[in-house]
Backbone:
């Protein structure tokens, strides 16, 4: 339930006309570690790249796409989770406990969105697909 409330909160802030960085900070859960000055500045620098009204509309359209931990526990499909080493890696510890059959790859030095722009991202996906293609052919 908390995830739904947090997502609704972020959507509300995005709809209000707040900048992306302000909305993310305002919607953070109360128990989340505070962002450092560097993290706040990085978010702020990225504000011009975000259309907050479009992001809010996109979030409103994806209400049924919320994945909870119970559904992850039941997943039997090979899954690769790739995240940036600067994207709060400590936040993935709970996910790793629940979604233990997934494979996790960290892209050192990458943030949240920057991971997909790193050549390691494609390398990790290709390796994962090749490994599971070989397993499927056995």
Residues:
């Amino acid at each position: 339930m908390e995830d739904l409330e947090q997502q609704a909160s972020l959507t509300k802030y995005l709809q209000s006309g707040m900048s992306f960085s302000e909305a993310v900070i305002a919607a953070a859960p109360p128990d989340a570690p505070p962002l450092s000055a560097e993290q706040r500045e990085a978010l702020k620098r990225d504000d011009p790249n975000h259309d907050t009204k479009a992001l809010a509309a996109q979030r409103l359209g994806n209400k049924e796409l919320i994945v909870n931990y119970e559904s992850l526990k039941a997943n039997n499909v090979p899954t690769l989770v790739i995240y940036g080493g600067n994207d709060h890696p400590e936040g993935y510890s709970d996910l790793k406990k629940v979604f233990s059959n997934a494979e996790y790859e960290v892209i050192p030095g990458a943030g949240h969105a920057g991971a997909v722009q790193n050549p390691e991202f494609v390398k990790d996906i290709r390796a994962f697909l090749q490994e599971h293609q070989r397993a499927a052919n056995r």
